[in-house]
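Can you give me the bound-state structure? Components:
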Amino acid sequence: MAMLEVKDLQVYYGMIQAIKGISFEVNQGEVIALIGANGAGKTTTLHTVTGLISPKSGQVLFEGKDITKTPAHKIVSMGMAHVPEGRRVFAELSVYENLRMGAYTRKDKAEIEETLKSVYKRFPRLQERKNQMAGTLSGGEQQMLAMGRALMSKPRIILMDEPSMGLSPIMVNEIFDIIRAVSESGTTVLLVEQNAKKALSIADRAYVLETGKIVLSGDAKELLEDDSIKKAYLGE
Amino acid sequence: MSFISYLINGISLGSVYAIIALGYTMVYGIAKMLNFAHGDVIMIGAYMALITMMKAGMSPILAIVAAVIVCTVLGILIERIAYKPLRNASSSLAVLITAIGVSYLLQNTALLVFGANAQTFPSVIKWKGLSLAGGKLNISGETIVTIAACVVIMIVLMLFVQKSKPGQAMRAVSEDKGAAQLMGINVNGTIALTFAIGSALAAVAGVLLCSAYPSLTPYTGAMPGIKAFVAAVFGGIGSIPGAFIGGILLGVIEIFGKAYISSQMADAIVFAVLIIVLLVKPTGLLGKKIQEKV
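Here's the bound-state model for the whole set.
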C-alpha cells in the first residue's frame, strides 16, 4: 500500500478548473518530485493534499486513511508536514518561536526538546540565530527555518513546495543536500519544483504536470534523459 | 491641584478606552476586521450587570461575572453567525458593513428590551477613594479601580499572548492563517477565542464606564466604542501596548480639552489629534511598518 495516494483529483478555483484529474502515489521512503511549469497545478495539488483547498472530486489517502475532507489543522498531527511555497515563516516570531510552532500539536516536552536539538544539529545556522526575528533572516535561512519548523512535528512524510525558489545557486545546492539528508534519515519526501534538473537529481520517481494533468511519469533518472523533458524543462 | 486631578481623571477615562481598544485591536490583529459592534457589547454588558444587581439583587462581583459571561457568549455568537460566513468574502467591505448592522441590531434590541430611558447605574465600587494633600486632591474609588484594572488587564494580556500556547497561536494566526493551519492550529477556534476575550473585556469596560458615568441607555456604548477605535488606530491598530497607550492618551486629551479649551469641542479635539497623528505617522504610534510586497 502506498503511503500517500491521490486518486483522480479535480480542483476548481471558481469556474476555472486547476486540476483535471490527477492520480499519483508516494511510497514509504521515496523522494517523489512533481515538476512542471508555473501554473501547471503543482502547488494546488499540495494544498489539496494538506486540506488547505478542498477538491471537487477525487480522493486523498494517507496511510490508507481517507483525508480528503480532513481540515488542514488536523493533518500535521497525523504525520504529514507541509513546507509551503514562499517559506511563510512567521516573520515577527523569533527563530526559536517558529520552531516551537512546528511542534504545536505535540505534547511531550522532553521529546520536543530532543527534536529541537536534532533540528539545530541539522541547521546550525538556525541555532546561531535562534533569538532573531524570522523576518530578518536571508531567503536561504528562511527556507531552512521553514524546513526545520516542519521537521519539528516529526513527520513521516514532508511535502515541500518550491524550496529552491529565489535562492542563489550555492544555497539551492545546500537546500537539496538537506532534502536528501532528510530523506536518508527515513522521512518520505514529496517535492514540488520548477527546478526540474535539481528535483530529478535527488528524486526516485517523478510526475510531470502540465495545465492540471499528469503528462508523464516514471523513474527520475530516466526522465532526466528523456528528450521531451530535456527540451521542455531542462533547457537543453 | 486641578491639573493633577484632571490628569488622573483623564487617565481613568483613558483606561476605559484602553480596555475597549484592546478588544478592537486584538480582533483586528487576528481576524483582520473592524468589529464596529464592539462598542455595543459594552452597553449589553452594562445592562447585564445592572439587571443582576437591581433585579436579582446580587453583589457587584457577581454582576461583573454575569456581564462577562453574557458578553463572552455574545461575542462568540456574533462572530460565528455574522462574521465567519463572510471570512472569505471577496470584499472586506462586506464584513465591515455587517459589523455596522450588528451594532444597530444590538442597539435596537436593547431599545426594545430595556427602553429608551436612561437608567441610573449603581457604582460597583463601594470604596470612597483617596483624599490627598489635605483634602485638596480627591481621587474616587472608581478612578483608582479603573486604572488598576486596566494595568492588570494589559499585563495579563501581554503575558498571555507572549507566553501561553493559545497566545502563540494567536500571533501565528495574525501573521499567516494558512501557515498557522499547517502547524496544526485551529484558525476558527483561535478567532473565536479572540472574540471571546475582546467581548469579556468589553463587559468589564462597560461596568467600569457606567460606574464612573452612571447613566445607561442603549446608545451608551456607541461613542466610547468609536473613541476606543480611534485610540486603537492612534496607538497602532493590531498592537496591544499601542491600544493601551492610545487609550490613555485619548482620555487625557479629552479631559484636558474639556477642562482648558471647551467642553463642546472636546470630541472634535480628540479627532483632530487623531488626524494629526495619522498624517505624521500613518501606522499609529506603535504601529507596525506595512511591508510592501514587491
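A couple of observations. The mean pLDDT of chain A is 94. Chain A is about 35% helix and 25% strand.
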